[in-house]
Each structure stands twice: as C-alpha cells, then as structure tokens.
Amino acid sequence: MVAEYQRGDKKVNATGKFDPQNIAAIGIAYQMHGLVLVDKQQKVLRDSIIWCDSRAVETGNAAFRKIGEQRSLSVLLNSPGNFTASKLAWVKENEPRIFESSYKMMLPGDFAAMKLTGEITTTSSALSEGIFWDFKEDELSKDVMSCFGFDEKIIPEIKPLFSSHGSLSAKVAKELSLKPGIPVSYKAGDQLNNALSLNVFHPGEVAATAGTSGVIYAVADNLFFDKLSRVNAFAHVNHNKNERRIGVLLCINGTGIMNRWIKDLSATNYNEMNKQASQIKPGSDGLFVLPFGNGAERIFENKIVGAHLLNIDLNKHSKGSCFSGHTGRNCFFIPLWPGYYA
Amino acid sequence: MRENGVLPSVIRVGRANMFLSDLFAEAFVDATNVPVELYENDGSVGAALGQASARVFLLRQKKHSVI
User: Fold this and answer.
1) Is the pLDDT of residue A339 over 60?
2) Are B40 and B53 in contact (CB under 8 A)?
3) Is A248 within 8 Å of A218 (Cβ atoms)?
4) Interface membership of A211 toward B (CB under 8 Å)
5) Please, which residues have CB within 8 angstroms of residue B64's CB and are 6 or more apart in sequence?
6) Could you tell me which chain A residue has the CA closest to the CA of B12?
7) In whole angstroms, what is the distance from residue A243 CA to residue A97 CA?
8) Per-residue confidence (pLDDT) for residue A154, from 0 to 100
9) What is the CATH number of domain A2-189?
10) Which of A133, A279, A286, B59 is most deeply buried (CB count within 10 A of its CB)?
C-alpha cells in the first residue's frame, strides 16, 4: 500500500509546484462500506471485502428482522443491509478462525491511516456508514453489537472526523519524502468527501458523482430513513448530536463500470464513444441500457439484477446506440425519475 | 429520494469521471429534471480541504492548551 502512495506521491511531486517538506497534514478520502481486518501486529488477515461485494446481503436481512425493522430504521437509519457490520458478521460465521484472530475491524480509510501512522482510529461517520452507529443515543449501536455477537474491543478508538488520527511515522515519511510527525487530520468516505469538496453541508444541498457507481447525495437535518432502505442515510462530515447533518445517498452500482465494460468490449476509447453517441438521437433508437451488474443494488432492496441491454434491434442498433444508451439517454435511471417524460 | 421529500433545486457536480462527458451531463439533467452546476473539482480537493480545516482546528486546540 505504501508503494501505491509512493507512485502517487512521485507523480504529484514531479509537478514541481510545491516542496513536499511543506506539507503540514494529510487528508484521506476512501471507498465506503468496506471491511479490513488486522491482528495485533497490524497484519492484514484476509483480503478486504469491498463495498460492492454482495456476500453479506442475507446476513444483513436476517439482522434487520432480529433487531426489528422499525427499531433498525429509526435508530440506525438503515437496514444493516450489505454494509460493513454485516460483512464482519459474515466473516464471523464463515471464517471463524480469521474472526477470532481479528484485533480490529476497519473501514478502508481507517486502514489507510493506520499504514501511514501505525495508529488505529475510526469516526462516528465511518461507523454510521458501516451501520454500527446509534443515531438516537449518539454512540456505538448496542443493537448491532449484540445482534451479531461482536465485542466492543474489535472497534477502533472513535475520534472526531476533523482531528488527529495519528502522526506520520518516520519510516513512511522517509519513503514518501514527507516530514515525519505530520498528522492525518481528516478521513471521510468518498461521497461525503465529494460533497465537502462541492461545499454541500446544509439541508437541501445536493451533490452527485458518476464514477464506478453513480451517486446522488443530499444533506438533511432530520434522522432520515427510507422504509425500504432503497436510499441510505449516514452521518455527514459536519454531523453532530446538537446539529444533525445526515447524508442521504442514492447509489446505482454499475454506472461508470458499465461504461468501461462497453468500452473494453467494443475496443474503443471514451472520446470515440462520446463522438458516436452524440450522433444518435436521445432515446437511443429504443435501446435500453440497464447499468447494474456490480453487486446488489440498494435501490432494489439489495437484489442482484445484473446489467441488461434491452430491446435490441439487430438491423437498427449500432455501437453508437449502446454508447448513447449508456450515457443515460435511455438508461434505467430514467424510469426512476418520472420528470423525464414531462 | 423525492418520495422521501428530497427535492433538489440544483445538483453540484465535479467535472470528473463520467461528468467529463457533456453528453452524460446533459442526459443526467434531462433524466433528473434538475439543473447541474459543474465545478472543476474532484475528491482530492475535498481531502485537501478537509485536512486543512482540521489543521486549523488542531492548531487552535494547541494554542488553547498552551495558554
């Protein structure tokens, strides 16, 4: 992992726009909802279970029933779903030796900070995105810990999101040409972080991204939940008990990754895809592209529906129709937004 | 989201990934029926802003503890 940092560091330093020795602190944005397990020596015990890995869907569904649907929604703001707590429970059930050897569980950003500093911390925001957080009591959820039979010791020390999460070790500082001892002073999930970068902090403000997945992320000031957990609610970067700021997240797992899949399959590049798509009228000649196929879709209550190309007319549709369809000009998110037909 | 009362009047987006494509951005606006504000921005800006905000907070804390 430090090698990855080094590669990025080298590229940034090569711009010559700054002296790396002047860097005063480190901020981390990371892929949400993953699970990393380490032992006491901070050795990784198994591959990370990343956000879109759907193995824990049934574990989460069972916990939803056990905790009680109403309680789960009103206190956790979500079903445990396929999030980090359910993934940890999956390891406990299916890989008991690994679970027993686990000293700490972490979200990916916590792990990245550990590799830089040697210290293991987390935040209420990270725990909320893993569905470990009780929003009513503003503490680690006793419901979740008891339902899954987890010991609190496996949870890292909880610190404020904007605070010192450890100091850069001398060894890593040398490898990255940075000053030893500078703090990791911020770590947040990628969607929260994207919202921060766009100055989205207050109720009613909304950000979006279209990377591997497509996300619309809104800020609310109440303990928001969707009764079917089709959209999910987490503690935003500026959330606290006295001034609630809840990030409401809608995700379609297969957005950019399907674009990449179509690109690879058609042996073309993104510029060419755009060019060909622009020559097709909106509606993509009736071809429908459903950009799923990247794990369980939360908008469909964690069902794995797979990606689809629908209504193909072999005499009419071209590569351009597929490219146009996937840019959203006849993409499945359209039926979810009836306004499109207005 | 609309069913749950989230009714955005504008959506802010960084010009990154699929939003590098004007075609995608236009289709997104058509599909959501909400205007998009595009910024020259990506997640790395957020991480930098986040650490800077925290750094100010930490320096203030240090100053207080010295006093």
Assistant:
1) no
2) no
3) yes
4) yes
5) none
6) A207
7) 42
8) 98
9) 3.30.420.40
10) A133
Query: CA–CA separation, A28 vs A130, rounded Å?
Result: 17
The whole-angstrom separation of Cα B26 and Cα B24 is 5
Q: Using the 8-state DSSP alphabet, how is residue A324 labeled? A: H
Tokens of A155: 């949870």
Residue A158 in this model has a pLDDT that exceeds 90: yes
Structure tokens at B57: 């907070």
As annotated, the residues of chain A forming the CATH 3.30.420.40 domain(s) are 2-189
pLDDT of residue A333: 44
Q: Which of A164, A198, A324 sits opposite B12 (nearest CB)?
A: A198
Complex ipTM value: 0.89
Residue B29 contacts A, CB cutoff 8 Å = no
Residue B67, both tokens = 């006093």
Q: Which amino acid is at A68?
A: G
3-state secondary structure A47-96: CCECCCCCCCHHHHHHHHHHHCHHHHHHHHCCCCCCCHHHHHHHHHHHCH
- Does the residue B3 lie in any domain? no
The number of distinct structural domains making up chain B is: 1
Mean pLDDT of B14-19: 94
Asked if residue B4 belongs to a domain, the reply is: no
Q: What is the CA radius of gyration of chain B?
A: 18
